[in-house]
Description:
CATH superfamily: Transposase IS200-like
Oligomer: single chain
CATH class: Alpha Beta
Number of strands: 4
Distance between the termini: 17 Å
Strand content: 5-15%
Order of helices and strands: EHEEHEHHHHHH
Number of domains: 1
CATH topology: Alpha-Beta Plaits
Largest sheet: 4 strands, antiparallel
Amino acid sequence: xxxxxxxxxxxxxxxxxxxxxxxxxxxxxxxxxxxxxxxxxxxxxxxxxxxxxxxxxxxxxxxxxxxxxxxxxxxxxxxxxxxxxxxxxxxxxxxxxxxxxxxxxxxxxxxxxxxxxxxxxxxxxxxxxxxxxxxxxxxxxxxxxxxxxxxxxxxxxxxxxxxxxxxxxxxxxxxxxxxxxxxxxxxxxxxxxxxxxxxxxxxx
Length: 204
């Protein structure tokens, strides 16, 4: 029986999954945008985001699960009078994200049944070396799969937000800081990463 890594607060996790039977999760621009909208709704309240990529049939996220006292479940639709709507577990929030997205995707594409493999994959990260490796692995995923020659050539990842100065909910300063500075962040992403070692570690 597959061992499921528990989601622990104040810890970094690589969250990843793919479409069931290798099916595509995203087939058009609005699919990507809707997933990100739902991510903002369900995951930002319970996790800090450091890196992400959405590929046609899979995704990768690097997050730090917040402590419960940091959770923010205020209702964004009631800015003048925010209302607390409870504090469900982080695992439940991820399930809500995936279930809500699957329902919308199925309705839009006239399909039925499961969309994601279950359970969703997660890997606890306990040292800065793997934090850096996972960041580079995530941002170079589109290159590995032949979608582009440089991370900036793929629109559905956090790489552009990392090298930009535009406002972002991504914890950009922390991510860049793991590499020393912006110049080294860019240079390190051009180097060969230990992809096979990372995939073995993640059991992808």
